[in-house]
Amino acid sequence: MVDVPATGIAEVDVAVAGREGITAAVESLRSDGVVILRRAVDPALLASVSDMVIDWHERFLSGAVHNYSLGEETATRIPDIWQDAFTEPRELQGFRKWNVAGMDHRFIPLVDCEPLYSVIHGFIGPDLGVTKTQMLVLPPGCLDSPFLHTDAGSLADVVEHMDASPVMVSAQVFLTDLPSPGMGNFTCVPGSHRKRYPWSPDNPTRSQLGGPLGEDIPMDIRRQAIVRAGDVAVFIHSLWHGATSNASPVPRRSLILSYAKSFVRPYDYESTPDVVLRHGTSRQRLLFGDLGAWAFRPGCFYHYPDDYLKMLASDPVVGP
Fold it and tell me: Is the entire prediction scored with pTM above 0.85?
């Protein structure tokens, strides 16, 4: 996948474009299913979450924690094409950890940081929550097989009409510079969010765990992103995406967040993580499903009170 073209993904420099940039990013999401936000994370926050990922990856390399979230109360199903990786040395395994917000408070400010949050809020609308928080490290010589997939499990079988309010969107925050192709770069097929999964007709169960999948997608319609640390790829859940192999001498580190309408069941936690309850702001706790006095009452997820909607509103964006 090193030969995948490194052009053709819409991008917006939201650090300088202001409100017009937010609108342009939302329009690209609707038309292409993906947009690259340049300089979307504050340098201080970027440094904090970068240190966090390095810390946890070092714990994994030392044997202190498992890969993925094996043995923990979160998602544990792993695609067949990655099963062999567990027999390889840890330094050659792709490191993936679920429910990071429940592991480390340093992640929490990322979920509503500006201007990223304004793009998410502008795309999905005021009724939204965080469904997934993950970290990913692809080391040099990573032996994991790259493949294209869509997000959200069974929801990947849902292709939305872009005139409607979207159900789910994800954001991949890049923590390392990827100035050249073949460094584990984010790869996708712009416009594929309109095509029902799977690409090939020989998958009657519509599973994304039996791979390798997406092999029939032509290389010339795939695109890989050239990015710097602090850039973010935002994409709708039904977009075909993945990563290239990492043929570089440096690890590729990133964080992944997913946002959805509040009725969508979270991917990697059952109730608001304790770490979020202890360290999160009112809005951050609400994004993780903490409804306060409304919790567990019928209708909670169908009719948000006005004060909740105000709390979930994005912060004012400076610019035109």
Answer: yes
